[in-house]
């Protein structure tokens, strides 16, 4: 009996998770791929700029930011976010190393839901869809609203299971 063939979403998300294994970030490994039709056009992962020590060598550069809590919570509530500013996000690297003409109408598969900054960049990049696996609850509502405003498909793969040995636990 022949092995079952993976569907396209699983195939491309598996590639995104394999790409994420190149990351040296101790907090989170993120991988992304750019796909037009069924053609793979580019891959990227999160990390320090080329030629610069990464977080595993020089440590994370953590900054703390505060922003209003999501709607429906106490009016004065603030949410503290910590982020590393040494690392270029996978989505940002993907945009840096692919051409606009290739992005037009393409799909981005990313292991993690894009943060607000990456979502803004992707919304302006020419892509038509973002497919992700791991949620990022801190930014979900505003990112989903942005995608709806832009008319971009934004979906989580609910049924997906990453390939063995490709997931790093979030250390933040």
TrEMBL record:
Keywords: Hydrolase, Metal-binding, Zinc. Residues 7-154 form the CMP/dCMP-type deaminase domain. It comes from the Bacteria. Its cofactor is Zn(2+). InterPro entries: APOBEC/CMP_deaminase_Zn-bd, CMP_dCMP_dom, Cytidine_deaminase-like, dCMP_deaminase, dCMP_deaminase-rel, Deoxycytidylate_deaminase_dom. Gene3D superfamilies: Cytidine Deaminase, domain 2 (3.40.140.10). The keyword Repressor does not apply. The active site is at residue 91. One of its GO terms (cellular component) is cytoplasm. The keyword Hydrolase applies. Zn(2+) binds at residues 89, 115, 118. It holds the Pfam family dCMP_cyt_deam_1. PROSITE patterns: CYT_DCMP_DEAMINASES_1 (PS00903), CYT_DCMP_DEAMINASES_2 (PS51747). GO terms for molecular function: dCMP deaminase activity; zinc ion binding. One of its GO terms (biological process) is pyrimidine nucleotide metabolic process. Belongs to the cytidine and deoxycytidylate deaminase family. This is CMP deaminase. It comes from Cohnella terricola. The lineage of its organism: Bacteria, Bacillati, Bacillota, Bacilli, Bacillales.
